[in-house]
Predict the structure.
Amino acid sequence: MPTAYVEVYEEEFERLEQALRRLRYDSNAKAVFLIDKNGQQIAAVGDVEEFDTTSLASLTAGNVAATDGLAKLIGEREFSVLFHEGQRDHIHISIVARRAILLVIFDERSSLGLVRLRVKRASTEMDEIFEDMNRKENRGPEGQVETSPFSEITDEDIDSLFGD
Amino acid sequence: MTFINYAAKEINCKIVYYGPGLGGKTTNLQHIYNKTAPDRRGKMISLATEADRTLFFDFLPLDLGSIRGFTTRFHLYTVPGQVFYDASRKLILKGVDGVVFVADSQTDRMEANVESIRNLELNLQEHGFELINIPYALQFNKRDLPSIMPVDEMYRMLNYKREPTFAGIAPQGVGVFETLKSVAKQILVELRKK
Ligand SMILES: Nc1nc2c(ncn2[C@@H]2O[C@H](COP(=O)(O)OP(=O)(O)O)[C@@H](O)[C@H]2O)c(=O)[nH]1
Ligand SMILES: [Mg+2]
């Protein structure tokens, strides 16, 4: 079966959130998002209610994908950082662990230099968490505490999703 | 790439609507958006040109309720259909879980349909996927127009692996949810096999 899965378990989720919280605090940012390269939000901290987080995740991933495409066209592997400057709010986008996107939204209470510095430190930490996640994924079901809850999905479960 | 978050109890899947330009992909998403309760859908984003042609993608997040205690979300994307947007199409297929092919039933668009399926096959391969293995549904759209090819003839021409097929008139909603359900079910069945 070709479909791949990204799985996040409780322990790593909490570690990731903690790293995000620290990054947000240290960099004085409004909000920090961790997004899967396919456009799905992994975790978010800060003033997240202010934003349409689902759209934010999808557009950020689209932005990174397009920029990656551009990089390849000119013979670069990737552009490691993207920065969008607004009148009030600014966006700093970087890649962590080659598979996730870190999005920091900040305003005049912070600065690009500070964000860049703190993102670097947070990335190192998150690289490690992702490595642990990879190990868990590769270990497969026997390494998990419980068996996949999805093996027991019934046709009725599926039909009920559509209100049939 | 199905994204399973055990901590937040969420499953996220990605469905891509593929097909030749002006076949009705964006219209499929618009209909789904219009007919879905506001608390079950996110914002629909269209990155379009001024002439309303899809430039990069349309995006519609749907929340279909829960399965085994996990909130089940589908992220629907469309690709730009015109031949020269191939680089963008490739990007959007990244991490796809299932594909809906929206074919244009007009006889003079058959070649464009065939070409687009071939293009889908190749672009999936670049991501390490095979169309033969991936959840897939085929829609014969624009059944309301005058110069269209009969459905059985279209089937012979376009079916790839005996995938489920649906006749559609996207602006009226005919076949739209049936097609979506079909591919969503196939994705969840894959999840069960996991
Ligand atoms: N008559 C008719 N027009 C359709 C149908 N589906 C889409 N259209 C129209 O075809 C045009 C292109 O549709 P669009 O969804 O933008 O195509 P896309 O390029 O595949 O996204 C629009 O003007 C639609 O209103 C259909 O089933 N019947
Ligand atoms: Mg379109």
